[in-house]
Amino acid sequence: MKSFLPTQSTVVGLTIVLLLLIVPLVFSGGTQEATKEAPTLIWFTSVQGGREPAEQPLFEAEVERLTGVKVKIVKTTEDYRTKLAAMLATGEPLDLVYVGDSLFETLWDQQLFAPLTDLIEASPVLSDPAVIPESEWDRIRRDDGEIYGVFNKFEQGTMPIARGDWMDKLGFGEPQNLDEYYELLKAFKTQDPDGNGKDDTYGMAIGYTTYDDTGIFGAYGLMRGFIKDSSGNLVAPWATKEAIPVYEWFHKLYSEGILEPNFITNKSSNFRDLFMTDKAGMTLYWAAWVGLFNQQVKAKNPDNPFEARGLTPPKGPGGRLLRAGGDGLMCVPKYSENRELAFKVMEFWHTYEGNVISTLGILGHDYTMDGGKYVLTETGKAHAMDHGAPQPKSLKWKNPLGSLEGFDEAAAIVREYALPQMPTPHDKVWETIVRSEAAKIILGDITPEQGIKNMQDRFKEEGVYK
Amino acid sequence: MSTSRGEVTIAINACPVPIAGQAHYYEDIAIFLLVAIENCDMQDKMKTTSVLLQKLKRTRVIYLLILPTIVLFVIFTYFPLIDGLRISFQDFRFIGESRFVGLQNYVEAIRTPGFWRVFRNTVILGFSNVVLTAFVPMLLALLLNEVRFKAWKRFSQTIIYMPYLFSWVIVGGIWIFMLSPNAGIINAARSLFGLEPVYFMAKEAYARPIIIGVNLWKQSGYICILFLASIAGINPELYEAAMIDGAGGLKRAFYITIPELLRTLQVVLLLNIMGALRIFDQIYVMRNEVIAQKIDVIMYYVYVRGLVQFKIGYASAIAVMIFLLTLIITLLAKRLIRYTV
After folding, report:
1. What percent of chain A has pLDDT over 90?
2. Do the domain assignments include residue B120?
């Protein structure tokens, strides 16, 4: 045994080598002198940039070509909050951070972001009302009068999206109220809309229980999340007795097998797939996906009669209502030494060239120029004109290649009926509680009255309700 | 981690997210302290300083070999521990001055009803996992040991071991699909008997049994291999002697195999106990809001409070409590196992 042991000098040597490897690793970070000379913006995002990791360097080079600013994009779509928290806690030198409205509200208390009001007001691009109306800036202005972020895109909204070709085939026009929606969904379930002779279709497929059912609850004027009552207290409209008819409507769909039964455990990819593969006639999802559904199905088989169609939401006692997407904002952490440079990139994002890169993508990779005309490459077609802002915020923007099939009509419906959800730091709590109890009501495990009482009790337990 | 005759091997559970993983770090610290205590006990037994020096001189090569590990351990485990402890007494802010709030985070934690609910879930799920993933694999190993057809034995071992190789993302996805009401194999089997489909993943009554069962399904193979290895080390002459004395298979199992497996069982139980409060991946993958109240565990609670709601000080306070609890439970279990076996 002893003869197999290394000699003492070998061990000491190995130990020193290992320590030499470890110590620089631990105390690394001494490259800041170099970065000061030629600052590289660290851009942390879940949406902007290349569609896959290999495209990221090309996107960074394209931004540098168009702005003269060197950027390093750190893009992650999974566990975005977790990774952002880790980077902030460890003092990563972030210069530009993308945050959704709910995340922004959660972080607001941390006073993490630098005000950008002076730069926005001095910017010929962003202060131009022909690009972004002043009312939009006022909407995100905080109580202290400052604006802490720049919009990323026109956020669209969620809406009922149905198989237009199935509706035509079955002789249905656009449904106008919840009863007509029920009849349409029942027909999708029972009348073999795909014509394969099998009972293998559902009326509607959704996920996460209530990923976004605002289009349906909106018939009773009930907005997702919280609103403030006259006393300034938070109230969850879906946790009030006014929501009972909507829960009964969903339970009816479930008990009759019209609602795809995995609606609690479905992820968004699950119900999107069900919709695109002739298994479900309707879903409730983002308007932008009307175009993307059509584009993706037709890309595989141009002869497929598939047609995704955005529908006007049902009208009820509360009128019609959809949810507009929350504002995704680009913000600058207070500790960033490159605030002006980061702002230059944000400003660029709303110029024509910025709109081109945020939609079509990278010249020579996603698209080429042919006689002054934009031509998508095969890669560009696969990327479906989405590199962070498929629908730019700028009112001046007009896509030179036109829109995806069905999108313009869907967007018009959203513009007419959608209102933004009020962001609060309790939005995750809302999701947990409402999804949980709503699912039990829809399954028929508890009555709507009991479910609503449970929701209210749990909001109190969490300290959201006084 | 394993200890024998003062030689220490420490597995560092490196976590990529210091804040989120503090509970993990604390449990590693607990393990390290146990080793230290054991070494102290051993050193107390040494009669004179010179004996100690002689021993150190004799084993200096071994200690030098583990030096890099200790350095890493200090940097990636002790530092986050101390930092986490400091944060647990603060109203933590990512930038700027974090305010010292004393025990406020701890008081808030124990006053929150949600904390006690996840604590209860953790105890139920953790205790079930400790017991079942020790004794069921032992039973499997005993059964496999009786299989005489070697190819079948190897095939069975492979099948039982395979789930352990998959990540929780895969395992969770497989089981959610298998339990789905319209496409799952379980409901397909039920339909053969004319039974109505059940949405298992949306029924609170099934939530804990599913979580415990799936964990058992995934972990059994690995633990079973440990027992099989232990069985392989049993002196065959014991069996021969028993057979000459007329002992049947059952008696051989009860009087030879099982007593010989007790040392392995001790180790498995101790490892299971140390991991009992660390359940996270499985819950993260398999939970949904409907069954959350029955299966959300402390680690998930820390994750949500710390990294979703950014209540870092509050989450750190709970992480510190998990550390202390793990340390106490493990020490108690260690004593208990030592005295009863």
Report:
1. 73
2. yes
How would residue A107 be classed by pLDDT, with cut points 50, 70 and 90?
Answer: confident
CATH of the domain at B160: 1.10.3720.10
Hey, what domains does chain A have and what are their CATH numbers? 33-154+326-394 (3.40.190.10), 157-324+417-461 (3.40.190.10)
Cα angle for residues A433, A439, A443 (degrees, 5° grid): 155
* Higher pLDDT pick, A77 / B219: B219
Chain A: closest CA distance from residue B143 (Å): 37
Which of B19, B61, B182 shows the shortest C-beta gap to A11?
B61
Render pLDDT for A42-69 as a digit per residue (tens, 0 to 9).
999 999 999 889 999 999 999 999 999 9
Nearest alpha carbon to residue B10 among B191, B274, B338, B334:
B274
* CB-based contacts of B63, cutoff 8 Å, min separation 6: B56
Residue B284 belongs to domain spanning: 113-311
* DSSP letter (8 states) at residue B255: I
> For residue A300, is pLDDT > 60?
yes
A192: left (phi over 0), alpha (psi -120 to 50) or beta: left
Q: By the 8 A CB rule, do A279 and A192 touch? A: no
For B236, the 3-state DSSP assignment is helix
Q: Looking at this predicted complex, what is its ipTM? A: 0.76
Give the closest-approach CA distance of B247 to chain A in angstroms: 40
DSSP per-residue codes, B161-195: HHHHHS-HHHHHHHHHHHT-TTT-HHHHHHHHTTP
Percent with pLDDT over 70 in chain B: 85
Task: Note the pLDDT of residue A189.
Answer: 97
Q: How many domains does chain B have?
A: 1
Please report whether residue B337 resides in a domain.
Answer: no
For residue B201, give Cα distances in angstroms to A199, B83, B216, B323: 24, 39, 17, 31
pLDDT in tens, A315-334: 999 999 999 988 999 999 99
Which chain B residue has the Cα nearest residue A85? B307
Å from B311 to nearest chain A CA?
A: 10
Q: Which among B123, B129, B125 has a CA at the least distance from the CA of B271?
A: B129
Distance CA B239, CA B160 (A): 26
> Which residues of chain A are within 8 Å of residue B96 when distances are taken between CB atoms?
111
Nearest to A85 among B96, B176, B310 (CB): B310
- Whether B164 is in a domain gets the answer yes
Phi and psi at residue A300, to the nearest 5°: -80, -35
Q: Quick one: pLDDT band at residue A36, thresholds 50, 70, 90?
A: low
Q: Supply A132's token pair.
A: 């972004």
Please tell me if residue B99 touches chain A, with a CB cutoff of 8 Å: no
Q: Where are the alpha helices (DSSP H) in A256-338?
A: 268-276, 288-300
Length of chain A: 466
Question: Cβ of B201 under 8 Å from any chain A Cβ?
Answer: yes
Is 0.90 surpassed by the pTM of this model?
no
A9: confidence class by pLDDT, cuts 50, 70, 90: low
Q: Work out the mean pLDDT of chain B and round it to a whole number.
A: 85
Q: To the nearest whole angstrom, how far is the Cα of A4 from the nearest Cα of chain B?
A: 12
Which of A123, A190, A171 shows the shortest CA–CA distance to A150?
A: A123
3-state secondary structure of A197: coil
Chain segment B65-96, per-residue pLDDT in tens:
999 999 998 998 889 889 999 999 999 988 87
CB atoms within 10 A of CB A342: 29
| Unique residue bearing structure tokens 């947990």 | A432
- Chain B residues within an 8 Å CB radius of A206: none
Average pLDDT over residues A108-115: 90
- Scanning B41-80 for CB atoms below 8 A from A yields 60-61, 64-65, 67-68, 71-72, 75
Cβ proximity of A427 and A234 under 8 Å: no
